[in-house]
Each structure stands twice: as C-alpha cells, then as structure tokens.
Amino acid sequence: MLESGTITTEIEMKAIEYINAGYQALLTFECDDGGFNWWEGDNPGNAILSALSIMMFTDTKAIYDTVDEAVNKRTAEYLAAVQQSNGSWSEETHLHAGNESLGASSLRGTCYITWSLAYGGFGDMPAVAKALTYIQSNLPAEKEDYTLAMCANALVQAKTGGSLVSTVLKDLHDKAIVGDGTVHWGTSGDTVMNSGGGAADVELSALIALAMAANGSFPQDVNGVVEYLVQSKDPQGNWGYNTQATVLALKVFLASLTANPGETDAEVIVSIDGEKLDKKTFDNFNKDVVYQLEVTTGLEKGDHLVELDYAGTGALSYQIIGTHYVPWEGADLPVGPLAIEVSYDATTVHVDDVITATVTVTNTDESAKGMVLVTVGLPPGFTLVSQDLAALKAEGKLNNFEVMGKQLILYFNEIPAGVPTQVSYSLIADYPVKAETGGSEAKYYYNAEVKGEEESQKIEVLP
Question: Are 261 and 219 in contact, with CB atoms under 8 Å apart?
Fold first, then answer.
C-alpha cells in the first residue's frame, strides 16, 4: 500500500500495531541454538521454519525499523551449522500436524532455505555457495513444477544460475495455462503448506511470477498472473482461505509495481468517450518514466469510457484515478457524537515566534466508547515542539502521538462523554509564509465512519 500510494493513516497505524505484536510474539519462538521451531522452548530449531522467519523478518524490516538484525544473523548461522556436507538441507519431517510437504525432498527444502538466506542479505555466506552447487547439480533431473519454481527463486535471488534459470523459466512459460488475459499454472503435487485446489494453483503461479519478475523474464506472463490473481480473489479478500497463497499473491502485486516491462517499443493513445486526448510513444529509454495525463474539465456526472489503445511490444502498467473537490462551505459534513475544534492563540506572527495550538474533542454520546484517533493539520513553515506532547503522554492525558508528514496524529484510549478533552502544544515559526493549517478530524479507531471534522485555517508568518 505504501508502494502504490493507497495507504491511509488509520490503516497504517493499525497495520503497524499488528506487525509489532506479531514480531514480538515470533521472537519468543527462537530456540537456544539460534533457529526457530513450532513451540516456545523447543530445541533444536527447524531449518524450514527458520528460513521462513528470515523471510518474514526481512519483509518486516522494510517498514518497521525496530527489527533486530541480530536475530536474522543468529538464524543464518544456525542454518549454516545444520547444513549437510553436500550442501543440502535435510527434509524437515517433524513439521506441524504432519505437514511435511515443503520438506518432501532435499532439493525443495534446500532451494527454499537458499532463497531465504539470499533474500535476507546472506548471499555471500559459504553455506549459500555450497547450496547453489547442490541445486545446480540436481536441478536438471527435477520434473515437478513447484520445486522448479522454488529453485528458480533461489537461483535468481542469489544472482546466479544464468542459462540454467533461463531454461527453467522457459520450460515453465511453455506449460502456462493462458486464458482471456490471464496466465496461471496448475499443480500436480503438494505445495509449501499442503494446499490443494485453487489455493495450490495460486501458490505455484505466484512463485513462478516472482521468479520471472526478479529475473526480468516473460513480463507478459507476470502481467497475466496479476490478472489471474485479481480474478481469483475470494469474497473475503484473500485467496483460497489460505495464508500462504494470500501472502504470495500480495508479493506478486508488489513485485509487479517495479518489474522491468521488458523490451519496449509501443504507442499508447488515451481516449475518453471516443475523443482522443493524447498519444505517447514508449521505448527502452523512457519505459520506466511515469507519464501522467490529467483531465480536469469537461467530465460531467455520469458514466464515461476511458480507453487505452496500446500497440507494440512491452508490458507497461497503468492506473486510472478519479478525484473530486467539494468546497468546504458546500460540503455535507457528517453529524455524530464526536466534534473537534482546533484554535491558535495567534494567526499572524513573526519568524521565531511561538504560538500555541489547542485541540478540543467533545463526545456527546454516553454509549459511544473506544479509542479515538485525532488527525490535526500542521501548517508548513512551523516546527512542532514535541516535548509538550511527550509531557501530556507521561501524565496520561494522551495515549500516544505521531507526526506523519504535515499531520499530527493524536491517540486517545477514550474520550469521555460530556466533558471536552483538550490538548495544547507549541509551534515555532521558521520562515515567512502564508500557510493553511489543513483540515482536522476526530474519528473512532475501529469505526472510522463516526467522525467529526473542522476546516483548515490560515496563518501568516511575517519576517
């Protein structure tokens, strides 16, 4: 969501809360020998679960800076210690609930662990070099598509394999099931999590698409898999009611945002309601440049047909975004139990002056309870004095606060009914500017539809 620009403050905060809780819980499953296992206190570790942990912690680190890199280092050292002399890892037959499918063969398990180590930044370890030699020796005799996909990801992530990877991906490309704009592969055996049916096809298709995207191969296949995943999502928002399939599907979406579109020589014509708006030519020089066409007038309320006529080679991505603006005085403001007011003790100041902002939140409904999220716009050209808010947090008057861009986020465990809740903080004027504070709102954390809003205000800073 961060990559695609679709995140909202409340979703991001809720996600970080879940990520932190999950991360802290998973740390308790680290074994004395540095690996990870199914149960707290187990020892020795499980090689495949340990590789899974490296994958998870590496992904988490990308958006959650408090991940301890020493944990991954210990886990990598554990995996190197249990590697067999021929460079492989044994199939882990003591997996949970009889789920031994990932460890069904040494080759599959070795490919997954190698992929994990390279993904986690340990590609220069001697253990990885030994594993790659084992994979390259055994891969030519492998016939099972799921294991081939796993090995392709290992070789691509470790930046090795060359013609061998190309051969594997070409063979998989030739086996693809091509539909109306979709591409996928069907499974003939067990998957990582012993999945079957549609969920198994999603896992396999996603694994192949990830390897192709990372290798810059068959971009049309990757786009076809994206379309297949979009069409196969179930009504609950996931894939096959299967966690592994869902995670891999999301990884494909993320990879497709930055995938190389391949050799490109194309012309794109954009039309609305049959009227040509613009024409753009793309080649290998500008295929990675974002081309934006804005239509600001002439669209009346109702249905409109947007057409992109693409002729040529390449696999460029596109998106269509609709926005609209309602002047504040004409807006249909929600009416509910929450009301917010933001006031400033001065709106015309000089550089280096300090002004005080006061946020007042009122709850008028005795039955309306729960955590409240308050978003306050911060005027550009000012520095927030965060010590004021830290003191309020220490006093228990504020649960937490965070600055995100030009917004101040305040968290309250609850806003008691009948008595206004106030928070004040200081702002220092940095440079001359005529600024807008940005709108403010108060909403229930788990019921964002219930909210109160206030319009933006003007502040001027003089020299």
Answer: yes
